[in-house]
Design a protein that fits this description.
heterodimer, A: 431 residues, alpha/beta, TIM Barrel, nine-stranded mixed beta sheet, 19 strands, 29% helix, globular, B: 308 residues, Rossmann fold, 2 domains, five-stranded parallel beta sheet, four-stranded parallel beta sheet, 9 strands, 38% helix, 15% strand
Chain lengths: 431, 308
């Protein structure tokens, strides 16, 4: 990277270094540079803007290969860049499934060709996500995979998950199994949080205990094996409590929560808006408040988007026939600022830790998440914490199924620096 | 009243009373030799039925025809829907053909509300999934008011598979709105979670509830639910919750037995109970036509003023 530029007078908020001060940040040759390199560099006025480590998403569906009508690696990483992300973990539920090194390598190459954001493919725990036989995780570890998941479903039996946790110990201490915690027998046929509203709307429920049962099982197995579990998109208050207790007992567990579970409740589904249909579902106000508290006190490590693009006609269907999920990469930072930081629920430094530093650590993404120091790879997000905007289509993503459509947000990404290059400037992609 | 009828929640108590009063004036039409009035001449009503139904479709068809509207029946079998056309595209096609009202029956909860986002026509919910069946609820309110003279303070038990019943929802919401006291009775597995939020009581003891009921409203229980583990067997269901002659004897004098049909005789209701004088199941059917005439008239007749 030959680009050389300097952000002048920005507020540098670097959770990895514990820094929060106003200074210039110089980027040269793909790296953060010292002030001496500012001479002759392109100047970017960053007064009033926040400069942070590039955001890192632990939970993105890029859909390629197989579902290119929903999203591609190119469009998904463009959405990521626009949202301030410099690294995303791409879920394995593609067609073919990312359960072997060839698919992993193919996704990486597509990402490299797009050049907008680093993609860390997540490998499947079981072959074809079928929940029957372990995938060849050793080969995928050699190909650089560090997080495995059968996302969409938990590993179905305790025996299989126990074996998976034991098996990956051969590959070192930092391989993580990420679980979508919902007991299939309790959520079969369900479309929203089970409660008074699902009863009134005549929609079969997905009860909170479906999540709590799997969380509890997984924590027991993590303790027994000494393995590492990462819990995806927590949604229930009692799940947060289970994780809090497990952490205090030294069980190796990390957890994520999505911007939509931190924002909405089941009450928002009263109009059968399919953009608000999620797995796990949006739950009660008490659940949402417990998620916020868990994120604030660090019980929940990271904010992850669960960016789940779908085609227009797929979401424009009967509620029980529409696929679950919302896109989220382009709105995550704005939502967290609007819903949690500006109202005072979450300090900005903790928000950026949860959006960048903590997920980079879980993912093993050493080039991301800070610190913002001379000599480090230049992966940065620059945003205006006060810029107001309304979420509306079109998006950089190929999809438009955003739960946040029509909402006014405060805070927006202005620049994204990926591997030393300005891939987003003044809020727009440059490539 | 809104321009659609999607849910009992769309109606105020005053709306309900006006609909029932209007239905009363239309019921006389059904007793004439020439059962027709010109109220909706030139208007087009589409019966858009994506789920099997005989009585509701025929009832709506008769209601529209007695008001002199043109009626088109559009069912799932053999239609574009069977060929994979989306609900939205099919609805837009019906709209392009000039439908003034779309009467929709669909297996998906919420689909009538979704339809209103795509078409300008008046939408009437003729049953959506396990959500609501408001015209059934209204004809049941009509029948209770006609037989017992009032709705306020009436004690109504709704017995059976409430969880999967759109009829139970519309009827509960309507009765609570009109000041009646509703008790849902059934095995706990078939009572919706947090149903008490509807303003109703819940009981698992049919014999304890019956002596305090003005109306025992019996729901259809599908044998399918047994397979899905909601109860052990149809036999045990009938033993614990079936409405038998002995149980009916526990009700006060003059108490009514109602059922939305079609009945599973010998499961939720015994044959000799269904045929008792206090069973008003056939009258429910007759009243359904008048109530649907009232609804079509209020939605379509008032819109342009000329037909009223």
């Amino acid at each position: 990277m030959s680009a050389r530029f300097v952000f002048e007078g920005g507020r540098v908020l670097d959770p990895a270094a514990g820094d929060d001060d106003v200074r210039d940040v110089v980027v040269a040759g793909g790296l953060i540079a010292g002030p001496e390199a500012a001479e002759g560099a392109e100047r970017i006025d960053a007064r009033g803007l926040v400069i942070a480590p590039g955001l890192v998403d632990l939970h993105t569906h890029l859909r390629e290969p197989g579902d290119e009508h929903k999203e591609t690696v190119a469009t998904g990483t463009r959405a990521a860049a626009v949202g301030g992300y410099t690294a995303v973990a791409a879920m394995a539920n593609t067609q073919p499934v990312a359960d072997n090194a060839a698919v992993i390598q193919a996704v990486r190459e597509l990402a490299a060709a797009a050049g907008l954001c680093e993609v860390y493919p997540v490998g499947a725990i079981t072959k074809g996500l079928q929940g029957e036989q372990l995938a060849e995780m050793g080969e995928m570890v050699e190909a650089g995979v560090r997080v495995f998941s059968d996302d969409g479903h938990p590993v179905p039996t305790a025996r299989l998950l126990r074996n998976a946790l034991l098996y990956v110990k051969a590959f070192g201490d930092d391989v993580v199994l990420a679980e979508h915690a919902e007991d299939p027998s309790l959520v079969e046929g369900g479309h929203m949080h089970e409660g008074a509203l699902s009863s009134a709307l005549g929609l079969a429920g997905r009860p909170a205990e479906a999540e709590e049962i799997v969380v509890a099982r997984d924590l027991v197995l993590a303790r027994a094996t000494g393995g590492r579990i990462h819990l995806c998109h927590l949604s229930s208050a009692r799940s947060v409590e289970l994780v809090r207790r497990a952490r205090s007992e030294g069980i190796r567990v990390t957890a994520e929560v999505t911007p939509h579970h931190l924002t909405f409740t089941d009450e928002d589904l009263s109009t059968y808006d399919t953009d608000l249909k999620m797995d796990p579902p949006l739950r009660s106000a008490e659940d949402r408040d417990a998620l916020r508290a868990g994120l604030a006190d660090g019980t929940i490590d990271a904010v992850a988007t669960d960016h789940a693009p779908h085609a227009i006609e797929e979401k424009e269907a009967e509620f029980d026939r529409a696929p679950p999920g919302t896109i989220g990469l382009e709105t995550a930072l704005g939502v967290i600022l609007t819903e949690l930081v500006h109202p005072g629920f979450l300090p900005l430094s903790r928000a950026l830790d949860a959006l960048s530093t903590a997920p980079a650590r879980i993912l093993g993404a050493g080039d991301h998440g800070g610190p913002i120091e001379a000599g480090r790879p230049a992966n940065l997000t620059v945003f205006d914490p006060d810029q107001g905007w309304v979420v509306e289509a079109p998006f950089a993503s190929k999809a438009r199924n955003s739960a946040f459509l029509g909402r006014r947000l405060r805070g927006r990404v202005t620049h994204t620096v990926f591997q030393g290059a300005l891939v987003v400037a003044d809020g727009k992609p440059t490539r | 009243m809104n321009e659609h009828l999607l849910s009992m929640h769309d109606l105020s108590a005053a709306d309900v009373t006006r609909i029932l009063d209007t239905a009363e004036s239309f019921r006389e039409v059904g007793t004439r030799v020439i059962k027709k009035v010109p109220a909706l001449r030139g208007r087009t009503v589409v019966n858009f039925f994506l789920e099997n139904s005989t009585r509701t479709r025929i009832s709506f068809e008769l209601a529209a025809k007695r008001l002199s509207a043109d009626v088109i029946n559009f069912s799932a079998g053999g239609s574009s829907v069977a060929k994979g056309e989306s609900l939205k595209d099919t609805a837009l096609t019906l709209q392009a053909m000039g439908a003034d009202a779309i009467v929709i029956r669909h297996s998906s909860s919420g689909s009538p509300l979704q339809l209103t986002r795509w078409v300008d026509a008046h939408v009437l919910n003729a049953g959506d999934g396990t959500h609501e069946h408001p015209t059934q609820g209204l004809l049941d309110l009509y029948t209770m008011r006609e037989k017992l003279g009032r709705l306020e303070g009436l004690r109504v038990g709704i017995v059976g598979d409430v969880l999967h019943s759109r009829v139970a929802r519309s009827l509960s919401f309507g009765l609570v709105k009109m000041g009646a006291e509703v008790t849902l009775v059934g095995p706990p597995t078939l009572i919706p979670p947090d149903a008490s939020a509807w303003g109703v009581q819940v009981s698992y003891d049919i014999e304890g509830v019956l002596p305090k009921l003005d109306v025992c409203y019996v729901l259809r229980v599908q044998r399918e639910r047994q397979r899905l583990e909601y109860f052990p067997s149809v036999r045990e269901y009938a033993r614990l919750f079936g409405i038998t002659r002995d149980r009916v004897a526990l009700m006060p004098e003059g108490g009514l037995i109602m059922h939305p049909g079609p009945m599973n005789r010998g499961v939720e209701i015994d044959s000799d109970v269904a045929d008792l004088p206090r069973s008003v199941i056939e009258e429910q059917v007759t009243n359904g036509i008048a109530v649907r005439m009232a609804l079509l008239f209020q939605l379509l007749g008032g819109a342009k003023g000329e037909a009223a």
